[in-house]
Write a structure and sequence with these properties.
Elements (H helix, E strand, L loop, with lengths): L4 E2 L1 H8 L3 H9 L6 E3 L2 E5 H20 L8
Antiparallel strand pairs: 1-3, 2-3
């Protein structure tokens, strides 16, 4: 299967998400990219999978309760 890699700007339009939001996720190491001569390129399927994992992880954290030591 041939993977197509696109720029951040095209990714933002494709996913309907703001450039800055995606840029923050890239800088935080949350979505994968390929470095092509110093330019970041993205596979839509891999980014969607990463975003889904982020969403699932954040939902799991919402349900957790903090353990507070008893006195």
């Amino acid at each position: 299967m041939l993977m197509q890699y696109i720029s951040l700007e095209v990714l933002a339009v494709t996913l309907g998400l703001p450039n800055q939001y995606l840029r923050n996720l890239v800088n935080g190491g949350h979505i994968p990219f390929l470095d092509v001569n110093g330019r970041k390129r993205f596979c839509v399927k891999r980014v969607r999978d990463a975003l889904e994992n982020l969403e699932n992880n954040s939902e799991n954290l919402k349900g957790e309760t903090k353990c507070v030591p008893e006195n």
